[in-house]
């Protein structure tokens, strides 16, 4: 429970979103983070950046001014007493806080995380979103020479620890945490990402949230023993929603036959052998070897690290394959080719309806085709019109490139 009433302010214009819902979400985040932590030289005044900027002001004749130190833009300027003032924006802003008492300046603080403890909260349960953001924890630590920790959902912790065994995963904040950043890939929380995520590559989300000049270095996977001695390829035919899957009738069967004809073992590593919903179906091809199931992600990473390549969809396993340096043939048309990680073997039909996920004119909803109804001949054609010939051509190019070194 907050000691004083909370007043939220907006540094940006969010007219297109629901202010009431946004403030409710911000309040829930504040409850999870807890009270304002940072003591100041002014008795009763506290300041931290764990839910955006937060300034707690006791009873008295105070005036608070909050601005962007890089631009001079003023976002809040008001008399305050027994109040906590919180920004809706949770991403990196070089906040400047000025506090006056009886019109005299008593406190000036400019946000600077250098050598101060910083915490990161991964808000998504998705494997792909987590792997997109994870390298930014290390990059921020390097740039600001600061102690860092982070929170990820429990099912992802073992994998993340293998990538960064020296960085602490924490459920709660350390008492001296100066700032917290929220890694979110959703447009439903505009205060966590200052640019619409649909118009930029996923790998830039963290760069924008933390206001960094460049992307970080790639993740590094451990060396491990190869278990399968024969040449093999991993495939995954399912994604978080069936509308993202490759739905060309018999397509996967033709690809598996093509791979086996070249002497590869083809191993399916999906979580489920079959998934069906709303008339759509994604199932392991009959010619593939069944290694589906709820296996540890670390085991999946080890297997992918020794595979000749991976064939899959814009999904978490594709991101995992890329993270462990396994070449990826990526099949998908619901997003534009530049949205996921860069691969020369991205397969999409540019002459079909495509890229609705990144089209800001579309009201994209999970599990829908926003441009065409189910009775339209164009329904999900971004998937259906990708042919086995196109996928096999990408596979052949990949194999040729590997031989050429």
How far from one another are the termini? 61 Å
- Rg (C-alpha, Å): 24 Å
What portion of the residues fall into strands of 2 or more residues?
A: 15-25%
Give me the CATH superfamily of the largest domain: Glycogen Phosphorylase B
Helix proportion range: 10-25%
What are the segments in which pLDDT stays under 50 over at least 5 consecutive residues? Answer: none
* Largest β sheet strand count, sense and barrel closure: 6 strands, parallel
- CATH class (first level) name of the largest domain: Alpha Beta
Give the topology string: H per helix, E per strand. Answer: EHEEEEEEEEHEHEEHEHEEEEHEHEEHH
Oligomeric state, counting identical vs distinct chains: single chain
Count structural domains.
3
Overview of the structural elements:
The protein has three domains: 6-110, no CATH class; 118-210, no CATH class; 232-404, Rossmann fold (3-Layer(aba) Sandwich). Helices cover 24% and strands 21% of the residues. The protein has nine helices and 20 strands. A six-stranded parallel beta sheet has the order 17-14-13-18-19-20, sandwiched between helices. Helix 7 (316-323) links the parallel strand 18 (310-312) and strand 19. The longest helix has 18 residues, at 127-144. The chain is elongated and about 80 Å long. The termini are far apart.
């Amino acid at each position: 429970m907050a000691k004083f009433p909370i007043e939220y302010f907006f540094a940006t214009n969010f007219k297109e979103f629901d202010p009431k819902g946004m403030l409710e979400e911000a309040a829930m985040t504040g409850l999870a983070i807890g009270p304002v932590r940072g003591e100041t030289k002014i008795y009763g005044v506290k300041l931290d950046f764990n839910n955006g900027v937060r300034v707690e002001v006791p009873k008295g004749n105070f005036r608070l001014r909050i601005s962007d130190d890089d631009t001079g833009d003023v976002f809040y300027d008001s008399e305050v007493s027994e109040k906590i003032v919180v920004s809706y924006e949770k991403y990196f802003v070089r906040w400047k806080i000025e506090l006056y008492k009886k019109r005299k300046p008593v406190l000036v603080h400019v946000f600077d995380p250098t050598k101060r403890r910083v915490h990161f909260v991964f808000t998504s349960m998705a494997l792909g979103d987590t792997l997109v953001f994870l390298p930014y924890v290390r990059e921020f630590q390097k740039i600001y020479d600061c102690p860092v920790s982070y929170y990820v959902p429990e099912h992802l912790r073992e994998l993340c620890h293998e990538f960064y065994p020296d960085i602490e995963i924490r459920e709660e904040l350390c008492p001296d945490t100066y700032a917290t950043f929220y890694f979110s890939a959703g447009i439903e929380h505009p205060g966590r990402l200052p640019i619409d995520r649909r118009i930029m590559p996923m790998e830039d989300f963290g760069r924008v949230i933390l206001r960094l000049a460049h992307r970080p270095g790639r993740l590094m996977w451990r060396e491990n023993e190869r278990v399968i001695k024969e040449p093999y390829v991993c495939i995954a035919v399912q994604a978080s929603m069936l509308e993202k899957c490759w739905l060309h009738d018999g397509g996967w069967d033709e690809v598996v036959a093509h791979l086996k004809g070249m002497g590869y073992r083809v191993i399916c590593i999906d979580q489920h052998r079959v998934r069906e919903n709303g008339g759509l179906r994604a199932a392991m091809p009959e010619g593939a070897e069944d290694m589906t199931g709820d296996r540890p992600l670390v085991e999946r990473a080890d297997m992918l690290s020794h595979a000749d390549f991976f064939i899959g969809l814009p999904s978490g396993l594709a991101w995992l394959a890329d993270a462990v340096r396994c070449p990826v043939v990526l099949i998908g048309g619901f997003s534009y080719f530049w949205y996921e990680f860069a691969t020369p073997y991205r397969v999409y039909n540019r002459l079909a309806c495509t890229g609705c996920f990144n089209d800001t004119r579309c009201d994209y909803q999970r599990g829908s085709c926003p441009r065409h109804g189910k009775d339209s001949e164009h329904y999900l054609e971004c998937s259906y019109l990708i042919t086995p010939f196109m996928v096999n051509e990408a596979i052949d190019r990949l194999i040729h490139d590997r031989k050429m070194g």
